[in-house]
Amino acid sequence: MIRLKADIMTKSLQDYTKEELIEQIKSLKKSKKFGLVWEDKPEQVAIDCETKLPVLTEVAERAITKAEDQPTNLIIEGDNYHSLSTLNYTHAGSIDVIYIDPPYNTGNKDFVYNDRFVDKEDGFRHSKWLSFMEKRLKLARQLLSPTGVIFISIDDNELANLKLLCDAVIGENNYIATLPVVMNLKGNQDEFGFAGTHEYILVYASNKAMCSLGYFPVDDEEIMKDWLEDDYGLYKEADNLRATGVNAPRNKRPNLYYPIFITKDGHIYSTEDDQPKRINDEVVLPINPAGDELSWYWKKETLAKNIHNLIVKRTKNGTQFYRKQRPALGDIPTKKPKSLWYKSDYSSSSATTHLKNMFGVKKFNNPKPVPLIKDLIYLATTKDSLILDFFAGSGTTGQAVLELNRDDGGNRKFILCTNNENGIAENITYQRIDKVINGYGDVNGTPANLRYFKTSFVDQAENTDQTRVALVARATDMIRVRENTFETVIDEDLLKAYKGADTYSVIAFDPSVIDKAKAEIAKLSDDKAVRVYVFSLANDSYVSDFADLDRQVELCPIPESILEVYKRIFDQKGTK
């Protein structure tokens, strides 16, 4: 992948020193000879991280607790670049499935870059989109587990560019499929040349050698019992070739009243002069048992092309012709998912109607269909998987996860990341998940748990130690998210402890409370894991101080563990 910096592009060759030219030549020799070329455009949300460190802060009043036996799901409000940065500390290497529906960059005000819409007249339209996507895909790539999968919805505007970008960021060898998804069966009549019916989903594995996708629960014998197979493929018996209805009589369609002949060896044909080729060939006319002269559904030309699509049946009412019905798209489901996706439930119009019925008014344009996302998650997860959507929009992915858990008794959990542009995080994403959990209208709720966080920032001070102190003071919620511990056990100024389903997290904001922390840990009667975070300017994990505890604990110094992550991901900014 080659990216050209704006300052290099605007500098003429005459302005370079000899040493600079040599460096440029060396750089070009190292560059890929094939791949994407675009001008990397600076993005303010990434520039902000040069002077500020993103952290998470809970909005406690939006917590929903409805199921003690279910895991806790998360909504993170903020720019997804900042959300992904925090998740690189809390969830690196632990996300099983990522699904995203990013801006399609159609030029119709669907993509905002540096607080401005990118329109079709913008000469850097594709460069801005690629810069935007690359930053986020690089952060997301670090979150995938070794067996993880990422699904990305896209349309024709950026499909080719996105494929090459994913090849570079995720790995060409990890590419699995490009799935056309039929979402508008009647087609978009406004498109030039062809009425568009589909979008795409790009599928990549974190490591294809370790990836395993599931199968749909289809009973092959049940599906196939109504279908037969000939040399042309699958079929089943459909309607009689003899017409019915008000237009069936011969006088209504005289050109469709003609004899069809059958030879002794079963060959079917018609002739221009309506005379048989052989005197002994059987003659069949479209006459019903009452003796009414009717008509065929097919013209002679159609009959000649579709002899293989006729079934001859000998009945008490004479010889009958029945048409063979060939499978239409979606008629024959298979256990292994097909490379072209279609179900009537995948239609974009039904998704819009579903969301409108939930809220009572139309509040969001072009939501993704819940059944589509459920099918993707079903194929790529176990019942305990973690799913991330960092372009969460209306929250379809969250609803899909909750419904799938309800259907199969799973314990999957989700993380939804979205900004709050036009109040979407508060008024749509959160409220939708709230309605799914608590119910709405005559729809019963699906019990689950939810925590709501916002991204905020710690300013980097000139004095590094001051930055460390400030970061530790704001790190509590990030640690809770990392450990999935949300029930408060101790809440003091210098010592806090939280409990989760499997873990205790203990935070000592000063070494002076280590002894008290040890005393509290010693009181614990269950066998949950205990992780202790101790503030240390010198990156000291205080192993010796906890060595005399009968209970095994895992120690982690803060803020150094957070700073190391941020140093890595923010140092990547601007690299090739």
Which SSEs are present, and which pair or pack?
Layout: E1 2-5, H1 6-9, H2 18-30, E2 37-40, H3 44-47, E3 52-58, E4 64-65, E5 72-77, H4 80-90, E6 95-100, E7 112-113, E8 116-117, H5 125-141, E9 144-154, H6 159-171, E10 175-182, E11 198-205, H7 220-224, E12 228-230, E13 233-240, E14 260-262, E15 268-269, E16 282-284, H8 300-305, E17 310-315, E18 318-325, H9 348-359, H10 370-380, E19 386-389, H11 396-408, E20 413-418, H12 424-438, E21 449-459, H13 464-473, H14 476-483, E22 485-491, E23 495-500, E24 503-508, H15 514-522, E25 529-535, E26 554-558, H16 560-571
Parallel strand pairs: 1-2, 5-20, 5-21, 6-9, 6-19, 19-20, 24-25, 25-26
Antiparallel strand pairs: 3-21, 4-21, 7-8, 9-11, 10-11, 12-13, 13-18, 14-15, 14-16, 17-18, 22-23, 23-24
Report helical residue fraction.
25-40%
Tell me the overall shape.
elongated
Radius of gyration, whole Å = 32 Å
- Determine the mean pLDDT: 92
Low-confidence stretches: 4-10, 572-576
Number of strands: 26
Structural class: alpha/beta
Proportion of beta-strand residues: 25-35%
Number of helices: 16
Largest sheet: 10 strands, mixed
Span between termini = 7 Å
Brief synopsis:
This protein is an alpha/beta fold and 576 residues long.
Structural description of this entry:
This protein is an alpha/beta fold. The protein is 28% helix and 25% strand. Helix 4 crosses helix 14, helix 5 (125-141) packs parallel to helix 6 and helix 11 packs parallel to helix 12 (424-438). The N and C termini lie close together (7 Å). Residues 4-10 and 572-576 have low confidence and may be disordered.
